[in-house]
User: Fold these one by one.
Assistant:
Number 1:
Amino acid sequence: MRKYLLDLIVSSNERLNNNYILMKLTSQETLPEMRPGQFVEIKVEGAPSTYLRRPISIHFVDKKANELWLLIQIVGDGTKKLAELKSGDTLNVMLPLGNGFGLPEGGQKELLLVGGGVGIAPLLQLGAELKAAGYSPKFLLGARSAKDLLQLDEFGKYGELFMTTEDGSMGEKGFVTNHSVLKNVKFDKIFTCGPTPMMKAVAAYASAENIDCEVSLENTMACGLGACLCCVTDTKEGHKCVCTDGPVFNIKDLKWQN
Amino acid sequence: MAELITNIGGLRMKNPVMTASGTYGYGEEFADFIDISKIGGIIVKGTTIAHREGNPYPRMAETPSGMLNAVGLQNKGVDYFIDNIYPRIKDIDTNMIVNVSGSTIDDYVATAEKINALDKIPAIELNISCPNVKQGGMAFGTDCKSAQSVVEAVRKVYGKTLIVKLSPNVTNIAEIALAVEAGGADSVSLINTLMGMAINAEKRKPVLSTVTGGLSGACVKPIALRMVWQVAKAVKVPVIGLGGISSATDAIEFLLAGATAVEIGTANFIDPTITIKVAEGINEYLDRHGFKSVSEIVGALEC
């Protein structure tokens, strides 16, 4: 897929809670095609400790409104600066990057999308595309507490929602891998994105149950283009770039690191 | 429009702007953003005699105005390059230059000899300065005798333009440059990355898997500029300056300090179109100051 370097306009930048923003970007031109699971690299201006671009997952593409949605967790100076942007500001964005999720194949019907923390971001677009393709995906979203479960109305548009919280304030108490939906439904494919321990637990479950499983990795990266070789993950075929060979990998190709 | 044509030890370039090895892949990675044939020279990823997996993740740490890397020369080896990559890149209409690295003199010689046979590779950059491999690399670049020996050995088998990339991790870089020149180098490029380190205080652990790594980016520019100035005064061969160049003004500063050409490295990660902007900016500067050719500002620093 062709990559672009675009100056996009912030159409809205909403603070969802203390730690998250939902930023919507638009352009006078039609936004390029983007696949679920791909990401963008954003140039942050005016944050002294932020030198490199910030890789951010594509949360949703609203084709009608010509808007790209980004769900951003405020972690450091770069994302703090992004949280300060207002409607009308411009942002230099390189997109679309990475491979994206693979669509189900060979009669895979029962699809589970498992997200934790900011890792829920790419699952919205994936869910929307799966629904449009005639599937009925299920979402299993985990968080510390109810206030950290974000965008539930949006996810609800595309599939059934299952939730876990560590404090039991919403959904089932515990971790995603303990949720009863895993016992009640025989899934054909699992897509997951979230903290590494969560993804490893999901991958271990999928392997044990012989379920096809794709994970979206978040290694720290510089170029986003496969040039610097900084973001590699160890695979059965050696080191591969998360930015170009990923971020989505099938667990059967990975050698998980500790 | 001033004249930007630049000559590095017999290598003719459209302009003095090159890309630094390890920051530009094989050029193709950037072709969606710019016409890469407009760059004076593209120095591709460091190539070794055998396949190297490189160092374990994490290999990168962002630092104030820069970054540390510890990639460790991951590449599929020179034979893979010749069979699979060279056919794809050989017809790009610019100087495609291979960065050659090794652990022993024999490795350097064998790799250089194989690259010498490729018609469309007009030059190599000998990397005697990689801080991220345990054996070789920087060991050759931090000692005058070893530096001269490896260059002499490669010179015997390599007939085209031989650029030698120097390490800044030395006390007197001009001495190393003189040794390399005596060994038969057509040009020296400097600086490679500076050895540095990052620590995660919360975890009480180093950020990089290798503990130390190579520092690059805007933060190293003053050091690079000083070293280019010192080396350009010492040697007769043309100097290629690099280290933190992020704008046309940065590049012009290196030319004024005595560099005949420049390489752009880490800045490619932030702006994939930076090379073209720098070439255009140099041209604009020359016009504005009434210079007819870029060669007029090489070493034109008044001090």
Number 2:
Amino acid sequence: MSDRQSSNAYWQANLRIIWISLAIWALVSYGFGIVLRPLIASIPVGGSDLGFWFAQQGSILIFIVLIFFYAWRMNKLDREHGVEE
Amino acid sequence: MSQFTLNLLVIGASFALYIGIAIWARAGSTAEFYAANRGVSPVMNGMATAADWMSAASFISMAGLIAFTGYDNSTYLMGWTGGYVLLALLLAPYLRKFGKFTVPEFIGDRFYSQTARIIGVICLLIISITYVIGQMTGVGVTFSRYLEVSNSTGLWIGAALVFCYAVLGGMKGITYTQVAQYIVLIIAYTIPAVFIAMQLTGHVLPQTGLFGTHDASGVKFLAKLDQVVTDLGFGSYTGHHNSTLDMVLFTLALMIGTAGLPHVIIRFFTVPKVADARKSAGWALVFIALLYTVAPAVGSMSRFNLTATMWPGAETGETFSQPAVSLDAIANDPDLQWMRNWQTTGLLNWEDKNGDGLIQYYNEAGAADAPVAAIIEEQGLVGNELTTVNNDIMVLANPEIANLPGWVIAIVAAGGLAAALSTAAGLLLAISGAVSHDLVKGAINPNISEKGELLAARVSMGVSILVATILGLNPPGFAAQTVALAFGLAASSIFPVLMMGIFSKRVNKQGAIWGMIAGMVSTIVYIFTYKGWFFVAGTNMLPDTPDAWLLGISPASFGTIGALINFGVAYLVSSMTEEPPVEVQELIESIRVPRGAGEAHSH
């Protein structure tokens, strides 16, 4: 039973990390890259604006950082809950 | 040495390398054939995934798609990379923990239903076969352009090569050939891009050159490009012209479609541990980003080079400060040899409509309000005279447009082939696994020996290569449409069912089955309504225009809606039927924690 509870706490923590990561994932691509582009249009980046940079380059770089952050954070979480391989 | 000999040498050497690797990495067991014995390091698997994923479309077509549309086609850049975040967070670690060989096998076990497994096989086969036809066509085109053989001879050579290493090596052979193919294709893509970025902006990195200053005119490169294309009546390069809603939905369809593609998912079965599956998705995206951050630079710079070739004044000053390129220059100027080369392929063509000896290139539709209107009036133009510019020449002709040495052209040819062949091999593996493991062993003959199953896998792979080649020889006229179909189906059928299988304990057999059917059928019907039934021209029931689309949603974006329908139906049906059995709920508990991944595949 205690095992079940510990894995529930583990799963809840995992879901929280996933939600935060996906919020950033959506913000940089759908947000800054598309929908919110007009709001940040006044910030110039090399001949265009910040939204254009997010759409063509920035979001890809942040996706990479997100995946490695998630992998690092989950490895830590696995150890904290004693469920690592 | 002639260009032809160079091409032959470089392509021949790359093929010898692939076959050498395949012989070295032969598969002896089903575990090796389906999952490379789960012994592939996360970095190697990342590289192989990148080659697996980046198809002829990524290598040859994507930069052209961005070149002629600009910002609006950023959807491809974000969509085809953002899917890896979903894979890493929502699918790959859990499917690796599950520890089986195929995607339908997970669907069948998690939803305790042979029917669900068979529906999974059907989705997988439709997705992978439509996709592989596009790859085989790409192989044929590349061969015929660079090795001066007919399209069909090129296809058969490509098919024979894939047959050698995929059938022999299975996942193990394919993984290590894909690593080699990745290296060939990334070198081939980067070298011309670096040269062009240096010529135009003085930056060595195309990624920074894109946002740098155009040397010849002293203004920012993107501002210069916007100026030149709007002068000619085209929409601005960096501007937003399409529907915002459709852009969001299309990007989302590409992302969840990517995460639902079976040939990509099975790559994550090959790593030793759950932690490696998480990390490996990151490495895959690093290697993919090396190409995807270069592609927008290649697109914008080759668009500029093409336009400045047609209007030589654009290079240093005002677009119309010099007359348009002359027929005489096209026929005799050694710098324009590439135009003559590509005219013979039919991908580029021009016509001096008003007979003034000049070829004026502009956008007829947008000319009235643009500076080009004055030129049209003055020179008596009756229409755009650069009559054909195929998207694909933006990458394939790039080295020639920029006057790069012959060996660069040969490497680009080898890179295009590597991209198409590596993706074809991955798709064929997914197909043969579904046939031999899910149909033959799972449904027809559960008692088949390991040797028998391995033979069945090899035979089904051989048959699928044959089918793909024959369809590639006679493309049913929908090669260009298959992307919409493959991604729409992966998004609307496979991704939701996998995600619900992991994140919900309540979704049951009935929910999964009806969800998959509803998602798949609604997406297919929507695409066929606008594109024609089975893509046969003239059978579409509504015109394929933004006005006729439901709420302005294009057929290619509908995968997102199909996925929502799938989720909705699955939850609704599950809530009205009984909970999944206890042992299935325990299975879900076990795939949610990494511990015990090593032994998971032995029971």
Number 3:
Amino acid sequence: MTILMRSFSVVVFGLTLILLAPISANAAKILEVRSPGGITAWLVHEPTIPLLSVNFSFAGGASLDRPGRNGTANLVSGLLDEGAGSYDSLAFQTRLQDLAVRMSFSADRDSFSGGLSTLSTNRDAAFELLRLALIEPRFETEAVERVRRQIITGLVESQEDPGTIATRLWFATAFPDHPYGRPSNGSIESVKAISTDDLRDLLGRMLARNRLTIGVVGDISAAELAPLLDKTFGALPVSVAIEPVPEVSPVGAGVLKVVQKANPQSQVMFGGPGLKRDDPDWYAAYVLNYVLGGGGFASRLYAEVREKRGLAYSVYSYLYPLEHAAIYMGGVGTKNQRVAEALTVIKEQIGLAGENGITEAELVNAKTYLNGSFPLQLTSSGRIANLLLAIQRHNLGIDYMDRRASLIDAVTMADVRRVAKRLLRPENLLIVVVGEPAGLTSSN
Amino acid sequence: MTMSRIIIAFGILSLAIAGFQPSATAALFHPKTHTLANGMQVVVIEDHRAPVVTHMVWYKVGAADEPPGKSGIAHFLEHLMFKGTPKVPSGQFSKIVARNGGRDNAFTSYDYTGYFQNVAQDKLDLVMGMEADRMTNLVLTAEDVDTERAVILEERRSRTDNSPAAQMNEAMSAAQYLAHPYRIPVIGWKHEIEKLDQADALAFYRRYYAPNNAILVVAGDVEAEAVFALAEKHFGPLARVSLPPRWRLQEPPQRAARQVVFRDGRVSQADWQRSYLAPTRAAGASQHAIPLSLFADMLGGGTTSRLYRGLVVERKLATSAGAYYSSTGLDYGRFMLHVTPSPGVGLGEIEAAVDETITAVLKDGLLAADLERSRTGLLAAAVYARDSLFTSPRIFGDALTTGVSVEQVESWPDEVRAVTMEQVIAAGRAVLKMDNSVTGLLLPDAKEGK
């Protein structure tokens, strides 16, 4: 059965988007739980439904991959639930399914994350499986080779995917000598080269308690959670020295790269320098982006590119604050004959907002939306647990949810104009086009 | 790596609709229902965990109800519903919702078209008023229609024309159905979309958009009685219309296996699929629907399933292998298999291994422990479904527009509990027949055969 939505929801960087938004019903109810062994988690106790979600993340992630071994963190993320402790792969997966426990791991540029959801009745067994996955993974040859094959197949498939091609080339061009320039899931060659020793080496460097944040939501009290934290995470090293990832700024301002692909529609990705999450102008930039291209059906790009000209189905922009770099990005898909026109309109809009900022009405509307829509995003235990992680990771404070609306409301026209001049410069864009765009060729 | 496996196995669309089927839920929602004098059905699911509501209006009309030659008009109209009315100027609908801190969107499928807003509970009155307004007062200009047609053609390029895998799916649907309109893509054929105009959209709108063809579903921090009163206020005054009977061309009996071979220079990874015409909870041999959900899970639902263990783990022929069945659909359903071969393995070898597995399962049966594991998973999914504020209204909307009743949604867990192994195998034998099937081969280019 096919279901078409009126618009794509752009959840490319879900965590970031959630983080940017405002206030929840549960705002007042966040507890900091400290275990006897010194492990901290944030908890929202919500006993209405007999289940709970645990989300956790270790700072580092794919940026810890060794040179020539890109994709190691990603491969690890595929293997932790493929056999651990006394369970081989089949036994571990069977146990998860018998208990209806949902366990997942993932690696991105800055972190290695995991999630556990379980019915309350199976809580202790679920935490024990998580402990095994983190502390005693088996990395048996069958499972390693199978998951490696799966990843390589995915990489082969994505070689023809215009969106993936555009993203990879954009990051490779913007960050030529930095881990951010290399794809988190690696290349076919690098994934082939990863050994079991590489997996263990990375696991040893990556999973340390000093880089761990935990968010828990659901049917569990603080007193019940505390001992489970020690049991589950207590055996991890307190701290492991890692090489710091260098700070970096994207390069490639003004560069246009065209990749020829025989598709009727070109996929375009554009971007340049953005703002870090702790930038004093963060909230002004957030409001500004909502008006320009982040606001779904209400943004200027939507109005100019889609509504008025019918140039695209999907056009958007977003702030992407990495740990060691800050970028501002956007994308559009337009038929080959009209890509140049779409790019002209987008650059014009970026330039206009850069010079003049936004209107009073747009500022007011943006604030209303950004504050009012926040609780709508907190729609499940897992999503709230993710928010708890993001608040911790960016040091926003346990009272952040209470302060969130006032931080947004405090943004003035002058703030927006200031940050617009800095952020919205069409000449700063690095643009990648994948397709057969009429009249466009790579610069330089 | 369970998640990525599911994505590889079934694709994003299936994931998106997994939450839409009654088979993901339970008799746990305790909906309250009411019918207005003009025939509009109202369903309320109270959930007081957060002060927000989901407000949805589902129309019992979709792509399968389109007139011949007008494919895509249901979806086109869905886009045009955001244009305007005498009260709401063109393009302002979503902006008003946003200015009130809400989010909105809409969707179209074969059997239904839906519109929704997620808002703070004190905005329910506002959005319901706007939704009722556009049920009968839509104003379209020729210019709006022309621009939106271009948008939809871009949407088709993004989803389908840029993607060989999507074009292959289109070809498989067209091969599965000889007569029934499920053979036509929801978004429409390009050459037909290009000719759709204002008159087509308004004709479709006037024919089908009316309170007696709509279902209101509200979930969240509300009291049912208050929602019923609001519904009376906003939708109550709207007049019912005379609706055409909901009848589509029926399939002739299928007498031969069908095959689709799709070759495209843009394909870098070959792929194997099979689709069997299947009953649903509302159509055909519907007693098989719930047993089929369990059968699909045991055959190819995850990492402990027969197909995954056999083809991926033990024989290493494939990197993913899965089965999928959705139990809703007004007229027909499909039972799907999907396998991605390992490097160097041909699709002929894949097909032989799949057929061997199916033959063995249908002949020798499955283990009682496997059935219990699948049953546990499905029943737990009902609890997980309650955790999301947006899942329950979608389940009810999907059910009620595809011939499944509120009671059937609610009785789903009991029915899952009651399924026996004999019923599971009988359902598998009834549906997994080659004469029911379309096999699809997606291949890189013309040089390599199977």
